[in-house]
Amino acid sequence: MLDTRAKFSTALYWVFVWGCGLLVLAFMIGPILLALVMSFNSGSTLRFPPEGFSLRWYEMLFDPIASGPIHTAAKNSIEVALSTVALVTLITAPAAWALARAPKRFSGSVEPILLAPLVLPSLVYALAALLALSLLGLGPSFIAVLIGHAAVFAPLMFRTVLGLAQRQNPALEEASETLGASRIRTFLRISLPGILPGIFAGAFLVFMQSLDNVSVTLFLGDPGRTMLPLRLFAMLEESLDGRVAAVSGVLILAAAILLVVLQRFGARDAR
Amino acid sequence: MIRKDTLLSWPMIAFMVLFFISPLLLLAGISLRGEDGSWGLGNFAAFLSDPFALGVLTGTLGLGAKVTAFASLAALPLVMLYWHSGKRMRSVILICTLLPMLTANVVRTFAWVVLLGRNGPISQTIFGLGLSDRPFSLLFSETGLIIALVQIELPLLLLPVFAVLNRADRKTLEAAEVLGAGRWRAWFSAIFPQIIPAVLAGWVLVFASATTSYVTQSVIGGARLIYLPQYVYREVGVLFQWPMAAAISILLLASTGVIMLCLTMLARHERLQGHA
């Protein structure tokens, strides 16, 4: 009697673990697959199940006349994203490298400031930044979005670089300098290669987040220059045609590439 | 005074203080400014005494709590599956967790618009099975919003737990089983305590991001369901009520901040640390 109960409980355990576990796994990945499937839909409405296979939405998306506004928005967004990555790399990589070597007391007291944007809602920051701008008598602009994105997303790269810099052995740099290499040569040959994967992984993360961000872009962006996330957001709320699915397909592909980059460069700390 | 070896970190520190911290301090400052130019807690008092606004605040915190609760329920079997899986299955689970997280928020929201709509698979399946007498839409309902947010935020809870499980000690589970504990009991007494700090850390992230996910809330929740982010946006974008919007933002920060602080302190609690 007791034995059957124990067996039943064990069976239930495996049913729960595998049954419910796989169900949750499907729940997580399902919507992404659905968005992909819908992007190849040949029907004119976003009905499920899709009516047939076609590339018409991709053709329409890449058509410069039919989708001009989307192209302009994408171009503007990519410009901002690339500039953000450049700015973030410039200030973040040296900081993370230096803090990995700084005394614990110093880095311990500075890191919370540098990581704060990760836990603060970006909407609140966007509001604060717009307020600061207007008090300075400035309006929304390209520079404003750029600085806003850099401030919010810099911690992403800071973490990926810091993780690698902390694992680097400072003795290597000392050895290089003792052997007569200049400071610059040591940096280029020893320090930089060690943290480069972190910079690369961080750059991808920052780029994707900058492309995706709505609130900072919405508040700080020049209303005359449409940005991709805002354009998509508007399409979601209004028209919802098949091109949203096609853009989704492109962005999912970008996410898959990002995933490979993160795996490849072993940025396991880049949660 | 600046030490030479920290020199390279100062540009970033200066940048963050100047462009991140100071706008927030400014926001906190302006929230104390009354309509008549006086300074005080008037905006906070006005917000908290307005039943509608208070409803929005409790609704937002409630949404965060519900999403966190359902995400935890959904996470449990998957976390257990991850624990029992071999290397290959673990990387499959990891990819299925990371890919949605790295996909743009707009894309995930779009997928849910299709899924939850009247012509979507959920409605069609339930209608097709005869469980409902007509197709229905879960869009613009809190239920739909919670389902979508759980899927969107779930990776934030799973990843810290997976990281702990990668390092977790298999021997404790074996010991528990040798000592005669059943499967369930062995898992909950040997492995579960080890992941509690990671779960609390994940809760912080899920809660903070569910309460402030402006895009998902407005697209899936629709115009009738108002949460704090939309409320703030309305105060600024439509009514130009800067001090009030600032006060609401500070309240949003403070309420999520207090919850985060409690969870963080709980995670650092000695007895929990002992298990970790």
From TrEMBL, chain A:
Give an example GO biological process. transmembrane transport
Q: Name one GO cellular component term.
A: plasma membrane
Output this protein's name. Spermidine/putrescine ABC transporter
Query: Can you tell which superkingdom this protein's organism belongs to?
Result: Bacteria
Task: Supply the Gene3D superfamilies for this chain.
Answer: MetI-like
Where in or outside the cell it occurs: the entry states:
Cell inner membrane; Cell membrane
ABC transmembrane type-1 domain span: 74-263
InterPro entries reported for this sequence: MetI-like, MetI-like_sf
Pfam families the UniProt entry points to: BPD_transp_1
TM annotation in the entry:
12-40, 80-100, 112-136, 142-165, 186-208, 244-262
How is it placed in the membrane, per its record? Answer: Multi-pass membrane protein
Q: Which UniProt keywords apply?
A: Cell inner membrane, Cell membrane, Membrane, Transmembrane, Transmembrane helix, Transport
- Family affiliation: Belongs to the binding-protein-dependent transport system permease family.
Tagged with keyword Ribonucleoprotein: no
UniProtKB/TrEMBL annotation, chain B:
Which residue ranges run through the membrane?
12-32, 52-80, 92-115, 145-165, 186-208, 244-267
Which Gene3D superfamilies does the entry mention?
A: MetI-like (1.10.3720.10)
Q: Would you name any one GO CC term?
A: plasma membrane
Determine the domain of life of the protein's source: Bacteria
Keyword annotations for this protein, in alphabetical order, are: Cell membrane, Membrane, Transmembrane, Transmembrane helix, Transport
* Principal localisation: membrane
ABC transmembrane type-1 domain ranges (all copies) = 57-263
Instruction: Name a biological process GO annotation.
Output: transmembrane transport
Location relative to the cell: Cell membrane
Q: Which Pfam families match?
A: BPD_transp_1
Record's bilayer topology term: Multi-pass membrane protein
Stored InterPro entries: MetI-like (IPR000515), MetI-like_sf (IPR035906)
Task: Give the protein family.
Answer: Belongs to the binding-protein-dependent transport system permease family. CysTW subfamily.
Q: What is this protein called?
A: Polyamine ABC transporter
Q: What organism does the record attribute this protein to? A: Salipiger pallidus
